[in-house]
Write a structure and sequence with these properties.
With 308 residues, this protein is α/β, with parallel strands linked by helices. Helix content is 45%, strand content 27%. The strands form two sheets. Strands 1, 2, 3, 4, 5, 6 and 7 form a seven-stranded mixed β-sheet that branches. A six-stranded mixed β-sheet has the order 9-8-10-11-12-13, covered by helices on one side.
Length: 308
């Protein structure tokens, strides 16, 4: 009996040691995993912030359609989200990277009030391209930035001559003109067979992924081509909010110069633009707001005291 009791005591001790060791090992692995996850989230957030900073020299450049690119060491997904709430809405940038065959998970968003990035959700790759165009309506509103991956190539087929010239001058490696490869996203103008994106340049609309969005001018046309419809509509609402705020500033300026004896006669028209910008619902209304903006621009050109 004494021998058996000792045997049982030894077995219990061994089992306890195994369980305790396994628990300690689990804690060590769990702690290391959490630490790696936290460090990855910090890294993702830092990259997202750096992307936002990278846009600054592009936006302030005086060269229209200037291209920039950046590369990352790991396979990366960039989500360029958009929120409409607030005076100007918010540009969100979130980054996740592939590590050990899995994508990092993060809820950390870097937000910017003064940036307008048009991209698909998400953009994935290691090398990314950025180019920017100013949006004027009729005065300058903002610089619109287009983000694409080197892994997704676009081919513009039968585009108007000025668009072909502009895109060719970019020398952006993932944009082809007319000579389309098998895996290219084919962007057709006014018809064509085998098109992924159809642009009706004269009518001002784009058909993509069974959805139709509307544009005015080349800056918004590129925005519609290179982004998802949801992103495009959200960013356009943000832009129109900015139109309303800037129109109010010019209206204040009109009142000021009027007090100095130089009337611009644009108060009523600017009020119409303010209301149109603040009440903008979707891209289908863009032609209405454009009509107001063009009318204001024509009057400003011939006003005794132009506001811009």
């Amino acid at each position: 009996m004494i021998s058996k009791k000792g045997y049982l005591d030894m077995s219990f001790s061994t089992i306890f040691a195994i369980i305790a060791g396994a628990f300690i090992l689990f804690l060590a692995i769990y702690g290391s995993t959490k630490l790696l996850s936290t460090e990855q989230q910090v890294s993702d957030a830092k990259i997202a912030e750096e992307i936002g900073i990278l846009l600054n020299p592009i936006e302030i450049s005086y060269e229209t359609g200037k291209v920039s690119s950046f590369s990352l060491p790991a396979e990366t997904r960039i989500d360029c989200g958009c929120k409409e709430e607030g005076i100007f809405g918010t540009q969100l940038i979130r980054v996740s990277q592939k590590s050990f065959g899995k994508w990092s998970e993060t809820d950390v968003n870097n937000d910017f009030k003064n940036k307008y990035i048009f991209a698909e959700q998400p953009v994935e790759g290691k090398k990314f391209y950025l180019f920017s165009k100013p949006f004027e309506f009729p005065f300058k509103i903002a610089d619109l930035t287009y983000l694409t991956s080197s892994e997704k190539k676009y081919c513009f087929f039968d585009a108007p001559e000025d668009i072909e010239e502009e895109l060719s001058s970019l020398k952006q490696e993932n944009i082809h003109i007319k000579k389309c490869a098998e895996n290219d996203v084919v962007v057709c103008f006014e018809g064509g067979v085998g098109c992924d994106i159809r642009v009706s340049y004269e009518a001002g609309y784009i058909q993509k992924d069974k959805e139709t969005i509307y544009f005015e001018g080349n800056a918004l046309m590129y925005a519609g081509i290179f982004s998802d419809a949801e992103v495009y509509e959200c960013q356009l609402k943000r832009i129109m909010k900015r139109v309303g705020v800037l129109a109010q500033l010019y209206r204040d300026k009109a009142n000021f110069v009027s007090q100095k004896g130089c009337d611009s006669n644009l108060n009523e028209d600017l009020m119409r633009l303010i209301n149109a910008g603040n009440n903008f619902k979707s891209s289908s209304e863009i032609n209405i707001v454009t009509g107001i903006a063009e009318d204001i621009d024509d009057k400003n050109k011939f006003a005794r005291c132009g506001l811009w």
